[in-house]
Amino acid sequence: MHAHDAALHAFPPVLAATLHGLARAPGSWIRSPFCSALSAARRRLAADLTALIAAGLAPFYRAHARLLYPRLRDPAAWPRCKRAELLDPAALHILYRDSDARLACFISLLLPAPTEAPVLYILELHVAEPFRRRGLAAALLDAATRTARAAGLTSLELTVFTANRPALALYTRAGFRRRRALHPDLTIMVCRI
Predict the structure, then answer these.
(1) What is the pTM of this model?
(2) Which terminus of the chain is more exposed, N or C, with fewer CB under 10 A?
C-alpha cells in the first residue's frame, strides 16, 4: 500500500465509464439504449463535477472566464463551458463518494492520443470542503502518477490559477514544477515521472 492509499481507503471508488474506447468501436452502439443511458449518466456526472468545481473555485472562473473561454460573452456562463470540457470523450473521471453518496473528491484526466506527447493531463482535481485536509488530493495525485507511469507516460501536466496558493503548494509538494506562465493568472506545471 502506498503512503496516500490510506486516505482513500474509506471511500469506495467510482470510476465513471469513458467513451474513449467506445468511440473507436465499429458497429451501431451509437443508436443503442445503452449509449443513451451512458450519455445521460455522463451529463449528470459532468453537472455534479461542475457543481463541486463551482463550490470551490467559482470566483476564479468568473474572474478569468474570458481568458479560459474566449468565445464566452457572459462570464457567469462559465459552468456550461466547463461541463462541455468534462464531457470530452477522452476525459476519464475518477471520483470518490462517501457512504451517503456525497461526492467527496475527483480527478479528471485527459488521456493522450497515440500521436501526442506521452503526457497525462490533469484537467481537474477537487476535494469537497468537508473532506479537505485528509490527504485525498495527494492520494489522487499519487494514483494518477502511478497510473501514468504504468502506462509508459513520461509526465503529468496541469494548469492552475496562479492566485490559488493552496493548489500551488499541493502540486509543488507532489513534485510538480512551474513550466511557464500561460498568462499572469494561469500557470502550467509539470511533474516528470
Answers:
(1) 0.80
(2) N
